[in-house]
Amino acid sequence: MVHSMTAFARVEKAGVQGTLSWELRSVNSRYLEPHLRLPESFRDLEGAVREALRQGISRGKLECTLRFTEETTGKPLQVDRERAAQLIAAAETIAGLIKQPA
């Protein structure tokens, strides 16, 4: 029996922080070839996603795209003053090390 590996799937989940959306596309291929597109803030998940794909799928050319839309409606910008002070102090230290700043 022949099983087609051509497929498309999309799932979206809204939460307090925002909305996550996974989009998966696959076409027939002899080997497992995952191609991941993740937002920078989710790059540390790449290894876990690849491992989950290997455990559940044996072959196919996969395009996996994760999108995150942050929920910003009605939220005022919050500044972490302690973190900002640390950043300013680090920048001043670095500026002091430069012999001829531009």
What does this structure look like?
This protein is α+β, with helices and mostly antiparallel strands and 102 residues long. The chain has one domain (7-97). Helix content is 27%, strand content 34%. The chain has two helices and four strands. The chain has helices spanning 46-56, 81-97; strands spanning 7-14, 18-27, 32-37, 60-70. Strands 1-2-4-3 form a four-stranded mixed sheet, covered by helices on one side. The longest helix is centred in the C-terminal third of the chain and has 17 residues, at 81-97. It is elongated, with a radius of gyration of 22 Å. The N and C termini lie far apart (70 Å). The mean pLDDT is 88.
Sheet/helix structural class: alpha+beta
Total helices: the number is 2
**Strand ordering within the main sheet:** 1-2-4-3
- Could you tell me the strand content as a percent range? 25-35%
Q: Could you give the order of the helices and strands? A: EEEHEH
Helical percent range? 25-40%
Which regions have little confidence, pLDDT < 50, spanning 5+ residues?
Answer: none
Q: What is the 3D shape?
A: elongated
Query: What is the radius of gyration?
Result: 22 Å
What is the distance, rounded to the nearest whole angstrom, between the alpha carbons of the first and last residues? 70 Å
